[in-house]
Structures are given as structure tokens and as C-alpha cells.
From TrEMBL:
It comes from the Bacteria. The keyword Phosphoprotein does not apply. GO terms for biological process: tRNA methylation; tRNA wobble uridine modification. This is tRNA uridine 5-carboxymethylaminomethyl modification enzyme GidA. Homodimer. Heterotetramer of two MnmE and two MnmG subunits. Keywords: Cytoplasm, FAD, Flavoprotein, NAD, tRNA processing. Its cofactor is FAD. GO terms for molecular function: flavin adenine dinucleotide binding.
Amino acid sequence: MIDDLVTKGTNEPYRLLTSRAEYRLLLRHDNADLRLTEKGYEIGLITEERYHKFLAKKEAIEGEKQRLQSIIIKPSAEVQELIRSLGGSELKDGIRASDFLKRPEVSYQHIKQLVPAAGELDFETEEQTEIHIKYEGYIEKSLQQVERLKKMEDKKIPENIDYDAISGLATEARQKLKEVRPLTLAQASRISGVNPADISILLVYLEQGRIARIK
């Protein structure tokens, strides 16, 4: 919000929408400490005690993830009964505990019923372990998109590109792009009314190379 107001300004009451946040799958409230504590420590805002607690939490999360990846859950009567009660499909073969957790109906608490605990973990560590494992594929795709957009940040946009020929752009984004005529993707991403989804569509269009131009 601060970045928007400082760099873009506003001609109307500011509407704080989740769709305005770039990479919102990564910028979650539950992982704020994992994203920012390291940076806070580097500039002197975090005490040694808090920093060591943060490192211990990170280590605990990674340790639990690795532990669940190494444990095989077999299709025992207890397991099958739990799956039936959750409305899922019964197991035919053994499955890694981490893969079992990726099922939409299964939570970390269900895993604890089937797998002996390695130790007492606090709620936040359990929560992050579950999120990291359950949404691993989506998070990885989002990280790849971040890297992709970083590399393409300075990609040039033809001055006479025909935005009306780009399908999928939101109407507001199309109007703003036609009005401002940005020279790069970086400039386009900072235009008020042009959301990350619009930038992704524009990026794909530019990569395809079949660019329609205004005659």
C-alpha cells in the first residue's frame, strides 16, 4: 500500500485489495517471521535471543519435513478407517507421510494420529510444516514466477504495440496501458490499475513474439 501511494499516487479513495499484492501466495501473514527476521537481524532490529529462536524454528520445520518424507504409511486397517471417515480414497500401497499430508482431506493432526511424534512441536512449527508440504507445488510455481519476472523486468515493450489485440487483459489495465504506453514491463507493473495477472498475460504475449502493432 505504501509503495502504491508513494510511487503511483491516487486520484480516488485508495482501495486495499489482495489482488494488488504481487506474489500474494508467498506474502502470507503466517510466514512473516520466516521472510523478515533475517533481514531485521542484519540491520540490527532483532535481538540475539529472538534470532536464535527464529533459527531453531526454521531448523524444526525443516527437520519435521524431512522426517515425514522418510516415513512410510502403510495401508493398515487403522489408516483405511481414518481415510474412510475423512471421505478420501483408500490406500492401495504404502505412501510417504509427506505425500499423504498433501491430500486435501488430511491435516497435520491426522498425521500425528498415525505417525509417532519425534518430539513436542509448537503450533506455529506444526502449521508451517503442514503449509510447506501441502502447498509445495503451488509455492514452487510462485517462486519460479518471481524469478521469471525478475529476469524479464527490463524487457522492452514495443512503442506501437496494440493492446486491444491482447486477449485476457482486464478492461481497466488495457485502458491504462494504452494511455501511459510504458516502455518496459517494469514500468507497466507500476501503473495503477494494472495488476500482476495483467503483467503475466503481457509477459506471455511478448514472449510469443507474434506482436500486433498499431498501424
